Amino acid sequence: xxxxxQDPRHKITKRGQNVTFRCDPISEHNRLYWYRQTLxxxxxxxxxxxxxxQLEKSRLLxxxxxxxxxxxxxxxxxxxxxxQGDSAMYLCASTLVKxxxxxxxxxxxxxxxxV
Amino acid sequence: xxxxxxxNSMESNEEEPVHLPCNHSTISGTDYIHWYxxxxxxxxxxxxxxxxxxxxxxxxxxxxxxxxKSSTLIxxxxxxxDAAVYYCILSVSQGAQKLVFGQGTRLTINP
Lengths: 115, 111
Prior knowledge:
The structure holds two protein chains of two kinds.
Chain A: E1 5-7, E2 10-13, E3 19-24, E4 31-37, E5 44-50, E6 53-57, E7 65-68, E8 75-79, E9 88-95, E10 105-106, E11 110-114
Chain B: E1 9-13, E2 18-23, E3 32-38, E4 45-50, E5 55-56, E6 61-64, E7 70-75, E8 84-91, E9 105-110
Parallel strand pairs in B: 1-9
Antiparallel strand pairs in B: 2-7, 3-4, 3-8, 5-6, 6-7, 8-9
């Protein structure tokens, strides 16, 4: 078990381009979350999956954002027509839901810079 | 989502205990208290969580007030590697159970 992996670690893109990030959770974890963190702020919730089902999306997740988790394994987060305001660290977290409450394992994040 | 209040920053010395406070006066009966920490350029790291009773693990201890309106994260013997931003978060026991991060406490450890 190597923890939660995110790829790439860094991405620089031009405004208007599309980008896709990948998250590989801990293999037996059935719940996966995406968060966004801007400089000096705490992470903000974007969306989460229970197995392959996307159950909640934040208002922060505009129509340009889409996330998938095919077969309940890895997840991708795509941003279309990137804007400078999308520059942030995108974090993925996973957990195994087996009780009333539990800790989460975060990845190291993908830092996106839109120029 | 219930909110927490933490000091913006704290400073301590290496090899001394550190007590990080958190106020959560609007906590509900089913909210769990979580602590995470974040080192520069890394994702948050789970530290500890609890509901009513004090909790201990290899990283830290969590002391929860009897009325649950406050809690304290205790690092028994701080090292330089404990320098990080520490987040105190309330997590409901059902639904999305997403973590709502505040500003956290930036802990500085002096050698």
